[in-house]
Design a protein that fits this description.
By secondary structure, this protein is of the alpha/beta class. The protein contains eleven helices and 16 strands. Helices cover about 35% and strands about 25% of the residues.
Length: about 350
Amino acid sequence: MRAIAKTLAEWTRQELPFALATVVSVEGSHPRAPGACLVVSADGTRFAGSVSSGCLEAELIDAAPGVVRDRVVREFEFGPEGGPAWRDGLSCGGVIRVRLEPWWGLSPEPAIRAVGDLVLDWLSAGGGGVVLSRGDRHYAVGEDGRAAGDPSGFSAGEIEAASERLAREASSVVAPGERGACFVRMLPPPPRLVIVGAVDIADALVSMSHRCGYRTLVIDPRRHYADGRRFAEAPGALVNAWPQEAIPQLGLGPRDAAVVLTHDPKIDDAALGTLLSTDVGYLGALGSARSHRERLERLRGLGLASDSLARIEGPAGVRLGRADAASIALGILAGLVRRAGKAELE
């Protein structure tokens, strides 16, 4: 849903009626995971997002006007047993179930409209929460405890379990319940990418990582590097501080990532030692294989254990064979996204 946040906000502000399609569950090979979204205007002429690699959207676009007009929820199942792959089947052989419904934020019911408002607030402010849906009933609970919607359609146990899932994982799921299955839509806060070293690679990495859903924070104690004018076109925060001072304040978790880029041992080693004391999910360091071996020896000399040092990917990312800043940044991003994807599957 974050990938279409701008469209959600714009169409809601314009009071343009539209339908929301969401992948509810998948089996076998599939192009998109549960929670992937597509929005379609009520006249079927405009859409944003996707629920597949492009083979299913036409069916949903055709159905959207009726869903908005009649204010109903429709459920679709696309699989290899259907007709042509581009119409109601999947050439990849998997099965995808999709939920299509009018957008909550334009509902005539104040309680349901409030769910849309709360979700838009999460998306704009970098917050997170969970939305439970059963039929045309919805209830949203944020990580900050704010809630909206119609709680009467859900038991206290279901709401509590959904909130607990938000703290553990990011995947949306169909959950069994006392009143039948409900769709638990996870909208966790976007993961963070901490970049130590405000170098030219960092500039490129900030821009690219935002496209992949990361919030960025660049840390550099060198004042002439940590200059906002150098990152004027790259979104994200910039901190002029030593990493061992800034990192402990961040509360990094398993969905977050960090890379160190300065090539200056007194900065990189301090950053790595501090990052290893956190729960950060991915940790990479720039440099050649030889410089990484030397780095590990220095860190062992500081008392860090080998099993802890094994968390560091060095050299960071995927080697693409080009040495310009943008290509190195792309390789780093590919490495951390690959690691994050494997972690979600485990």
